[in-house]
Design a protein that fits this description.
Helix content is 39%, strand content 18%. It is of the alpha/beta class and 332 residues long. The chain folds into two domains: 1-149 and 290-332, 3-Layer(aba) Sandwich (Isopropylmalate Dehydrogenase), CATH 3.40.718.10; 152-289, Isopropylmalate Dehydrogenase, CATH 3.40.718. Strands 3-4-2-1-5-12-11-6-7-10-8-9 form a twelve-stranded mixed sheet, sandwiched between helices. Helix 1 (17-24) packs across helix 2 and helix 3 (93-111) crosses helix 5. It is globular, with a radius of gyration of 20 Å. The two termini are 15 Å apart.
């Protein structure tokens, strides 16, 4: 039986995506899955010259042409890209356009069942906006648009810590207003279901408090009393192992020590800071609520070091291996 197939999208050509792809291919052990890249073969060739990596580049016309070939990066090029005129480390509409088209191609292939999952390298939000994609802030919004998913959410993962997010790309004021019981219940159910699908039986999920010290009985805010605690009780009544709210200054430490399988953070920085302080180099992102596996590196395009052979590919290696593990769990 042919191995399942994972696409790796190259991301913004002006960033570190091509560099971390060629570096990751030195370390990847695809094992029970095959991988191919959706991007620019010329950008990958340039990255190999910059990094000293030595791979074969094989351009393919469709994912069905992927073969199980060692030391070979197989590349699907859905759009032409002029790598000769590329200026690394700079925002360009052409790069934003290419990055979106790479990802859209991957999502379409997943929805059509021709590819079983996708691993994403970073895109640049400013470049995406310059290319005219004003509604697509990032990968998450593109996924929501293309899959018509009723509910999606981000989970960050690194060794010893998993953090789901109630919201990500909202201002702090908007994020606070978003902390409502129905939303919390939906996201907690999605988190538990996703963890189970990824191989954790009866997962325990802790909910971080919004206010300092968990609100101090309402003296520092009432969200814990009026919204979060009732949502936790509703989830318990549904048979879910959900606990909290716990003060955010201690809940992540408790999760790292094994008390919980995951934490639900209530806004972007609350969860992202915890993950990145704990183990930034190997942290990855997974998307919950979509009908296929999607993982990603947990860093940006790193324009300041693009083209300098300084990018660390550990995150891409971890994201790919995590996607393979999740895929194996979903197929069993």
């Amino acid at each position: 039986m042919k191995k399942p197939l994972l696409a790796i999208t190259m991301g913004d050509p002006a960033g570190v995506g091509a560099e971390i792809v060629v570096k990751a291919y030195r370390q990847l052990d695809s094992g029970s899955a095959m991988t191919f890249v959706i991007g620019s073969a010329d950008c990958l060739r340039q990255a190999m010259l910059q990094t000293g990596c030595n791979h074969q580049i094989r351009v393919i016309e469709s994912p069905e042409a992927v073969e199980d070939l060692p030391q070979t990066i197989q590349v699907l090029e859905p759009v032409s890209f002029d790598a000769a005129s590329l200026v690394t480390g700079q925002v360009a509409a052409s790069c934003g356009e290419a990055a979106v088209r790479y990802f859209e191609t991957a999502v379409t292939l997943c929805l059509d069942g021709r590819v079983q999952g996708v691993v994403t390298c970073p895109i640049n939000k400013e470049a995406v906006h310059a290319a005219g994609f004003h509604g697509d802030i990032g990968h998450q919004e593109i996924l929501a648009r293309m899959t018509s998913a009723d509910l999606t959410a981000t989970m960050l993962m690194t060794t010893g810590l998993k953090v789901a997010h109630l919201s990500t790309h909202k201002s702090l004021a908007e994020a606070v207003a978003y902390v409502k019981q129905p939303v919390l219940v939906e996201k907690l159910r999605l988190t538990v279901e996703s963890l189970e699908r990824w191989g954790i039986s009866n997962p325990s999920v802790a909910v971080a408090a919004l206010n300092p010290h968990g609100g101090e009985g309402g003296m520092l805010g009432r969200e814990e009393i009026d919204e979060i605690a009732p949502a936790v009780e509703t989830c318990k009544a549904l048979g879910l192992d959900v606990r909290g709210p716990f003060p955010a200054d201690s809940v992540f430490y408790r999760a790292i020590n094994g008390e919980f399988d995951a934490v639900l953070a209530l806004y972007h920085d609350q969860g992202h800071i915890a993950i990145k302080v704990h183990n930034f180099e190997e942290s990855i992102t997974a998307t919950m609520g979509i009908p296929f596996i999607r993982t990603s590196v947990d860093h940006g395009t790193a324009f300041d070091i693009a083209g300098q052979n300084r990018a660390d590919a550990s995150g891409l290696v971890q994201a790919t291996q995590a996607a393979i593990s999740m895929l194996n769990q979903s197929l069993t």
